[in-house]
């Protein structure tokens, strides 16, 4: 991996999503790491510059450090495909599916993978009676969140039925689809995956212990009160089972390059349940992929270089004749 062989590299950061602030932090870390290893890397904010500049300015690769919509949802990936610029992370289809938590669940359930039960409410189409019925179907507490946001933005834990309407309204303000999800009480863990196809490898599992069990936006990025345990300290065999589950979840979505899946382990049954998969994970000082990679002996700079080396375009379909 000769850093000079990558040519001029754009670190896509910032963007227009609700996660812009986190993306800027991720991008700054990646940019510094790549430049520190001799890569000709430059910051590029799609919210301030047209993506067509990438071609005109001679960029040869793109490291996607964008999070959420217009960066992690297949849109930027599609633009880079048209420009012919290889990029980090999963391709167009995988990114588009993974950003949608409901569609992701449908794929996982079709493949027999465990994920919490859910109810989908579509903005403008649900009635007060349907909202009131959700706690009876899923039980309390339950989780309400926008179907296509990350970093716990718009997420609410509903403990009383009377709080449902407000939680749904808040989520609907951010997305046209509102996901109401069964709450799984137990250990919260996350597991990154690197690579593609049969060569993909799950990294060490991280167990997350947040203040009062509230792993929200603030506790994810801006406090030091959350504890991240790696080694995770789970009972023997559980970590391997979670890694196998996450690897399967990654592969059935057709992911490549890297991603990170979040999992809840039921305290009573010890059954792991897939929550979601992030196809452009955070790379900030509080981020979990670098933490897990370090436990596997891969430092931050080496991780960034490895991800950049794996940048590619979607394979072209075979054409008869």
TrEMBL record:
Binding site for Mg(2+) 2: 276, 278
Gene3D superfamilies per UniProt: 3.40.50.20, ATP-grasp fold, A domain (3.30.1490.20), ATP-grasp fold, B domain (3.30.470.20)
Binding site for Mg(2+) 1: 262, 276
GO process annotations (BP): cell wall organization; peptidoglycan biosynthetic process; regulation of cell shape
EC identifiers of the protein: 6.3.2.4
SUPFAM superfamilies: Glutathione synthetase ATP-binding domain-like, PreATP-grasp domain
Protein name: D-alanine--D-alanine ligase
Species whose genome carries this gene: Ramlibacter aurantiacus
